[in-house]
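Changelog note: in this version the structure field was regenerated for every chain. One regenerated record is shown below for reference.
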Amino acid sequence: MVEFKPRPTIVGDLWFGTDQGLYHITNFGLNVIQISNIQSSDAIAIGKGTIAYGNLYAFNSIGGVEALRLSSNQGKTWEVISDANHGFGSAGANALAASWETSGMVFVGTNGRGVFWGTP
């Protein structure tokens, strides 16, 4: 499954994840950048962060470890924000959204176990 997420306030800015990695498209497709170290990426969300661009959230795999991660620098570095002891089931089926009103707030639909949300 391919997940596409546009950056709402930047025209021509799009993120998409596949089973081959995470990609960032800018300038209406003239620039396509594969984000390094991401082996696969499922759900993606973009929301308010501490920098002007915002936070990027994704269920992705780095080094063979699938987790919900946060990047506050457009995918250059990633921080695991999920709890390894309490997984979300199949990450590819989870819904993911982020708030544009509250910095750091992310929502995860959990395949029938409700919606989890959290802030830093």
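Spot check on this record: The mean pLDDT is 87. The first strand starts at residue 3 and ends at 6.
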